[in-house]
Every structure is written in structure tokens, then in C-alpha cells.
User: Fold this.
Amino acid sequence: MSGFDAEASFADLGPDQQQVLIAFALGWTGRTRAWVLGLLSELSAADGKNRRFTGEALQLLIRGLAQTGWLIDLPQRMGQWQVTPNRRSAVFLKAIDGLGVTPLRKALGAVFRFDDSAPSAWTHFNETDAAATIVRLETFGGVPFETVSRLREYCRFGLSWQEVVDAAITTDLDDRLFARLEPPLQTVILEQALARLLNDWVVPPIRAVELARRQVERYPASEATGRLRVALAEYTLWSDQPARLPELLRPLLDDIAGSQPSGRAGDALREQAALARSAMAAWLALQGRWSESEHAFEEVLAQLRILGGKRKGLLPEPFALPYVLSLLAQGSPVHLERALKFCLSESGKRQPSADSGWGLMALALQVRRGDNRLDLGSFKPLSDNHHVYRIDLWRWLMRAWLKTGSESVDLHPREQDAAH
Assistant:
């Protein structure tokens, strides 16, 4: 960043600069001078001459803070500034620790014209930004999230509570902020971060994998961290680190072996243990122990059907894919028929469709069985340097499985790019 002094610290700033920076940090996202002036007024902030801040004085302070790398302007949002992202959470938490949540909450409520001290039928947030700013303050200020969640009732007229929570907590979460969350909320956030990494291939802003591993070590015997262990097992398989699985999943398997839990908690624990066994079955497939893997999967699927009362979507994708591969590898008509039924069931369609991974596998199975003709266009990868399509994983797998002979196949330049 131009003009940024890496050795600068908040304590080196003048009192006026500190107050302005705190106001911007509380606003978090881009804010105008008028907004900051309003918040400073509600906080009864005074400059070095014990006078209220003026627009002209604020403009000079903003300019100075920008020149020293503390603030950045947002070109796409004319006239708006925000604290430089790598400094923002530190200043934000300093504001909370120094001023306290209660007065800050009151000031932000006044700025956003939101007052729930004596709520009526018409009390509501006017926009997601207002709700997210207040939820962010309370959550990282130590207010129990169960208490924070009471604000959900004021998200009306199309306002989404989930969007508010995402904007307030997860979007710009860093390690410093993560440490301020309650352990149960930390676990939920890590589950969501791993889900985005696994399902959308979006790298989260926090070190989700490392933090998740610490979390399950710190809280080994809880239902929530059991779910987190399963998510970590999915990541472990996708990232080709299967040797980590036994140590990771042992607590889940030991818990169910050493107790007979009942009720909802017991069902949840049994489901997690079954998913842990499916991860181990997937590991067998990765070792080429196809028959062992198949039988282990069949036992798990039978149990999950009883526990969940459904017949599809029982296994996470990183576990289900090795199950089908174990059937394809054995290759008998019985195995191919079983694989086809599973893929069609997972795709949710009676006939194969190239618009999903399971549909593509079903289509490839029909081609191998002679029930459909081979059209490589259905298995053409679409990824390029700008976007990766997850379905290409299935396209490459099925192209390799359908290929006959030992000669290499020439790839179109676009397909070469997709392969890289």
C-alpha cells in the first residue's frame, strides 16, 4: 500500500486521529464524512480544543490518515472511506475494549435510527448494513450470541437474518476476530468455512483447516465438534492426506463404541460415527482395496438409511465418490448396475443428465454398458484460467474411465488449459 508505514501503531496517532479512526472502524465498511461526523457527535467526541469535530477538520484528518496508510478510499463508492483491511479489526476491538459495548451500541443505534429499548410492532432495521453493524459490535464485544440473535425479529420487510450474520461475522473474519467468538459459534463458523471450501472451492478468509483442527483437539467430546471432525475428514480426503484420518476420527468411533447414547443426541452421535466409518471406507478405496471398501460402504449406507429415514444424499460428496469408484473398479455387470442406480438416485433424475457430476457418471455407466452412445462433448471440460468448474472433476474421471487402448488422446488447446 502506498505510503503505509509498517511500524506505525495506533498509539503513535494523535487523539483526534484516534477518535476518527475508531469511528471508521465501528462503521467497518465504506463510510462518508457525514456518517462519521454523526457517530462522533453521538459519542460526544471532542477535538483537542474540546470542540465538536467539524466537516472541514474531519476532511483534513481523513487526508492525513489516508496518507499514512490507515484509511483507504473506495473508488467504486464515491466519497466513502474505510480503515485499511489489515488494520481494521485491531482498531475495531480497541474501540470496544476502550469505550465498552453499551455506549457504542447506543451511539450506533442513534446513527441508524434504530431503537429497540422500547420496541413496537414497527421497530425494525432499515437495511442490512445497519443490522450487520450492530450485530458485529455485540458479537465481538462479548454479548452471548443467543442474546444477539434476538435482533433477528427486527429483520423484516425482506431483510435476511442470514445475510446480516454473514456480513457481520463471516465475510471479513480474521484470526483476531475469530478468537473473540464463543466456542460454539467458532465451531459453526468453521463448519461453514469448510463447507464453502469443499463445495464451492472458495478459500475462506481465516485459516479454517488449521483452526478446525485446533478446535476438535480443544473440545473433543461435543456433538458440534463431531460434525466438524466429519468436515475435516472430507477435506483430508480431497487434499490427499488420508493418513490423518484414523487419528482424526478415532474420538468419534471410540465415543460410540464406549457408550449407548439415547435420544436425539444419541442419533446425532451414531450418524457422525457412521460418517466417520464412511471416511475410512473411502480411504480403503484410495488404497485400491475395492471389495473391502464396497462392503464397508454398504454397511454404513444401511445404517444411515435407518437413522435418516431417506435413501439419497446420505454421504458427503468426498465419501460418496470413492464408493462409486470402488464399484467401477470391480467392473462386473452387478457392480455397474449398482453404481448406475446409486448415481441416478443421487442425481435425482430417472435418466442421466450432463448437468451434474452424478448425472455424468450415470451417463458414462450407460455408455460402458452399451445403453447409450459415447459423445465426448458431454465430457468436455469447461474450466479456464478465470473460472474452475467443479463438475470438471467428474468429466476428467469419466473420460479416463471410458478411454480404451493405451494410446494418448490429443487434447484441444482449451482442454489443455482446463487440465492445468
Notes: The mean pLDDT is 89. The chain has 20 helices and two strands. The first helix runs from residue 15 to 27.
